[in-house]
Specification:
162 residues, alpha+beta, Isoleucyl-tRNA Synthetase, Domain 1, Ubiquitin-like (UB roll), 2 domains, four-stranded mixed sheet
Protein backbone atom coordinates (compact mmCIF):
# COMPACT_ATOMS: atom_id res chain seq x y z
CA UNK A 1 0.00 0.00 0.00
CA UNK A 2 1.46 3.38 -0.94
CA UNK A 3 2.04 5.70 1.99
CA UNK A 4 1.68 9.17 0.58
CA UNK A 5 0.56 12.53 1.90
CA UNK A 6 -0.63 13.82 5.21
CA UNK A 7 -3.82 13.05 7.08
CA UNK A 8 -4.52 16.26 8.99
CA UNK A 9 -7.22 14.72 11.21
CA UNK A 10 -4.98 11.79 12.18
CA UNK A 11 -2.03 14.13 12.84
CA UNK A 12 -4.23 16.21 15.16
CA UNK A 13 -5.55 13.07 16.95
CA UNK A 14 -2.00 11.74 17.38
CA UNK A 15 -0.62 14.93 18.93
CA UNK A 16 -3.65 15.40 21.20
CA UNK A 17 -3.24 11.76 22.31
CA UNK A 18 0.50 12.14 22.99
CA UNK A 19 -0.20 15.20 25.16
CA UNK A 20 -3.10 13.65 27.07
CA UNK A 21 -1.51 10.21 27.56
CA UNK A 22 1.64 11.83 28.99
CA UNK A 23 -0.50 13.82 31.45
CA UNK A 24 -2.53 10.70 32.36
CA UNK A 25 0.62 8.65 33.05
CA UNK A 26 2.12 11.44 35.17
CA UNK A 27 -1.15 11.56 37.16
CA UNK A 28 -1.04 7.74 37.49
CA UNK A 29 -4.39 7.59 35.66
CA UNK A 30 -3.45 4.51 33.66
CA UNK A 31 -7.05 3.57 32.90
CA UNK A 32 -7.53 6.93 31.15
CA UNK A 33 -4.25 6.51 29.27
CA UNK A 34 -5.30 3.04 28.07
CA UNK A 35 -8.70 4.40 26.94
CA UNK A 36 -6.92 7.12 24.92
CA UNK A 37 -4.63 4.48 23.40
CA UNK A 38 -7.72 2.59 22.23
CA UNK A 39 -9.12 5.80 20.69
CA UNK A 40 -5.85 6.46 18.89
CA UNK A 41 -5.64 2.84 17.71
CA UNK A 42 -9.16 3.09 16.27
CA UNK A 43 -8.28 6.35 14.49
CA UNK A 44 -5.15 4.75 13.01
CA UNK A 45 -7.11 1.69 11.92
CA UNK A 46 -9.74 3.82 10.14
CA UNK A 47 -7.19 6.10 8.44
CA UNK A 48 -6.13 5.48 4.87
CA UNK A 49 -2.48 4.57 4.28
CA UNK A 50 -0.40 7.76 4.48
CA UNK A 51 2.84 9.14 5.85
CA UNK A 52 0.80 10.36 8.83
CA UNK A 53 -0.43 6.84 9.51
CA UNK A 54 3.13 5.46 9.47
CA UNK A 55 4.24 8.13 11.96
CA UNK A 56 1.21 7.41 14.16
CA UNK A 57 1.92 3.65 14.26
CA UNK A 58 5.54 4.24 15.34
CA UNK A 59 4.40 6.75 17.97
CA UNK A 60 1.74 4.31 19.22
CA UNK A 61 4.43 1.72 19.95
CA UNK A 62 6.29 4.27 22.10
CA UNK A 63 3.07 5.37 23.84
CA UNK A 64 2.14 1.83 24.95
CA UNK A 65 5.68 1.05 26.19
CA UNK A 66 5.12 2.21 29.81
CA UNK A 67 2.12 -0.12 30.19
CA UNK A 68 3.03 -3.15 28.04
CA UNK A 69 6.82 -3.01 27.66
CA UNK A 70 7.33 -6.52 26.27
CA UNK A 71 4.69 -6.10 23.56
CA UNK A 72 6.06 -2.65 22.75
CA UNK A 73 9.59 -4.06 22.31
CA UNK A 74 8.25 -6.70 19.90
CA UNK A 75 6.34 -4.07 17.91
CA UNK A 76 9.39 -1.77 17.87
CA UNK A 77 11.48 -4.58 16.39
CA UNK A 78 8.86 -5.24 13.67
CA UNK A 79 8.75 -1.49 12.93
CA UNK A 80 12.56 -1.54 12.58
CA UNK A 81 13.06 0.93 15.40
CA UNK A 82 16.65 1.59 16.42
CA UNK A 83 17.78 0.08 19.71
CA UNK A 84 15.36 -0.69 22.51
CA UNK A 85 12.02 1.05 22.73
CA UNK A 86 12.80 1.64 26.41
CA UNK A 87 15.61 3.95 25.23
CA UNK A 88 13.50 5.65 22.54
CA UNK A 89 12.35 9.18 23.28
CA UNK A 90 8.72 9.98 24.03
CA UNK A 91 7.02 11.32 20.87
CA UNK A 92 7.22 15.10 20.55
CA UNK A 93 3.98 17.12 20.69
CA UNK A 94 3.33 19.81 18.09
CA UNK A 95 1.40 22.47 20.07
CA UNK A 96 -0.12 23.82 16.84
CA UNK A 97 -1.94 20.51 16.38
CA UNK A 98 -3.52 20.60 19.84
CA UNK A 99 -6.00 23.30 18.84
CA UNK A 100 -8.97 22.59 16.64
CA UNK A 101 -8.92 24.94 13.65
CA UNK A 102 -12.08 23.62 12.00
CA UNK A 103 -15.64 23.53 13.26
CA UNK A 104 -18.83 21.84 12.08
CA UNK A 105 -21.66 24.27 11.49
CA UNK A 106 -25.29 23.10 11.62
CA UNK A 107 -27.53 24.62 8.95
CA UNK A 108 -31.20 24.71 9.95
CA UNK A 109 -34.37 25.78 8.19
CA UNK A 110 -37.29 26.52 10.54
CA UNK A 111 -35.28 24.86 13.33
CA UNK A 112 -34.79 21.55 11.48
CA UNK A 113 -31.29 20.39 10.58
CA UNK A 114 -30.85 20.38 6.81
CA UNK A 115 -27.06 20.25 6.36
CA UNK A 116 -23.72 20.48 8.16
CA UNK A 117 -20.66 22.34 6.93
CA UNK A 118 -17.05 21.89 8.04
CA UNK A 119 -15.39 25.29 7.89
CA UNK A 120 -12.40 27.17 9.28
CA UNK A 121 -12.92 28.34 12.84
CA UNK A 122 -13.80 32.02 13.25
CA UNK A 123 -15.34 32.71 9.82
CA UNK A 124 -17.34 35.95 9.69
CA UNK A 125 -21.14 35.64 9.94
CA UNK A 126 -21.64 36.89 6.36
CA UNK A 127 -19.35 34.13 5.03
CA UNK A 128 -21.18 31.45 7.07
CA UNK A 129 -24.50 32.73 5.71
CA UNK A 130 -23.15 32.67 2.14
CA UNK A 131 -21.83 29.09 2.51
CA UNK A 132 -25.13 27.91 4.04
CA UNK A 133 -27.15 29.41 1.19
CA UNK A 134 -24.78 27.85 -1.37
CA UNK A 135 -25.51 24.33 -0.06
CA UNK A 136 -27.49 22.10 -2.45
CA UNK A 137 -29.40 20.48 0.42
CA UNK A 138 -30.41 23.90 1.73
CA UNK A 139 -31.51 25.08 -1.71
CA UNK A 140 -33.63 21.93 -2.18
CA UNK A 141 -35.19 22.39 1.27
CA UNK A 142 -35.94 26.06 0.64
CA UNK A 143 -37.61 25.20 -2.68
CA UNK A 144 -37.72 28.86 -3.68
CA UNK A 145 -39.22 30.10 -0.39
CA UNK A 146 -38.22 33.63 0.63
CA UNK A 147 -35.89 33.92 3.61
CA UNK A 148 -37.25 36.35 6.20
CA UNK A 149 -34.41 36.20 8.69
CA UNK A 150 -30.98 34.59 9.09
CA UNK A 151 -29.70 33.81 12.58
CA UNK A 152 -25.99 33.04 12.80
CA UNK A 153 -24.31 31.73 15.95
CA UNK A 154 -20.56 32.00 15.20
CA UNK A 155 -18.76 28.63 14.93
CA UNK A 156 -22.01 26.78 15.74
CA UNK A 157 -25.03 27.24 13.52
CA UNK A 158 -26.91 29.08 10.77
CA UNK A 159 -30.70 29.11 11.11
CA UNK A 160 -32.82 30.28 8.19
CA UNK A 161 -36.33 31.53 8.95
CA UNK A 162 -38.69 31.35 5.94
Amino acid sequence: EPAEGQDKALDRKLHQSIDLIAKDIEALAFNKAVARLYELTNAIEKAAPSASRNVAVRALARLVAPMVPHLAEEAWEVLEGHGLIADASWPEVDPALLVEDEVTIAVQIKGKLRDTLTVAKGLPNEELERLALASDKVQRSLDGAAIRKVIVVPDRLVNLVV
